[in-house]
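Narrative of accomplishments. A recurring question from our advisory board has been how the design workflow behaves on a single, concrete structure rather than in aggregate. To address it, we present the structure tokens for one chain from the evaluation set, followed by the sequence designed for it. No filtering or post-editing was applied between the two.
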């Protein structure tokens, strides 16, 4: 070669810092390879650099600067081939306890607690900064909250636009509950903060003890 250097830069995020997940942070090769080694709560965006909406990158960068508590992280699905191979392996094993959190399309947002995936970001909520931040603060990190229903996340709302659409206020159901029936008149009058407060009360507080079930490697 003529001395020209090829630089591969998989990270899509700025200096103030979304955590890009690396292969050594997963239990690759174990029975549960899509679990992570950290006990900290993680909110992970799975994305494809070629197709991700730049507005979603902006939202994720801002969340990393403004959300206290969980790690705001991301997985580049093109650059992290070993990680995505692990998700494909788990998807092929329907008896694996982490099977419900596979088979998703990018972009996808998954909340991790106690090393394991616990909840998808609901596909019927808008991809906006305010909505995602409320979900993180009031539901995603709450013990006992789970959401295994996956769907395509569409319609990124650029930072700065008000949360005025009905889409922001569609009810989320805790597993094993009957689907919520929302009166459109009530929806139109409901404030987003009130919506998440209501969902937080419905989830309640659950003591979540981590039990060694033998899946994780030492």
């Amino acid at each position: 070669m003529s001395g020209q250097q090829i630089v591969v830069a998989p990270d899509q995020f700025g200096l103030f810092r979304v955590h890009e997940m690396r292969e050594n942070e997963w239990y690759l090769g174990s029975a549960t390879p899509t679990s992570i080694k950290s006990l900290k709560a993680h909110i992970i965006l799975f994305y494809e650099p070629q197709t991700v909406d730049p507005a979603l990158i902006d939202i994720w960068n801002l969340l990393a600067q403004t959300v206290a508590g969980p790690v705001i992280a991301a997985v580049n699905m093109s650059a992290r081939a070993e990680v995505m191979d692990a998700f494909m392996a788990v998807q092929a094993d329907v008896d694996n306890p982490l099977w419900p959190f596979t088979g998703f399309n990018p972009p996808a947002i998954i909340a991790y607690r106690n090393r394991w995936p616990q909840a998808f970001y609901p596909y019927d909520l808008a991809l906006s900064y305010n909505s995602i931040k409320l979900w993180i603060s009031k539901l995603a990190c709450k013990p006992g909250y789970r959401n295994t229903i996956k769907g395509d996340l569409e319609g990124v709302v650029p930072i700065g636009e008000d949360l005025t659409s009905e889409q922001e206020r569609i009810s989320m159901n805790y597993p094993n509950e009957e689907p919520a029936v929302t009166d459109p008149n009530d929806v139109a009058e409901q404030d987003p903060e009130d919506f998440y407060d209501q969902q937080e009360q419905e989830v309640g507080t659950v003591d979540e003890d981590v039990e060694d079930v033998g899946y994780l490697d030492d």
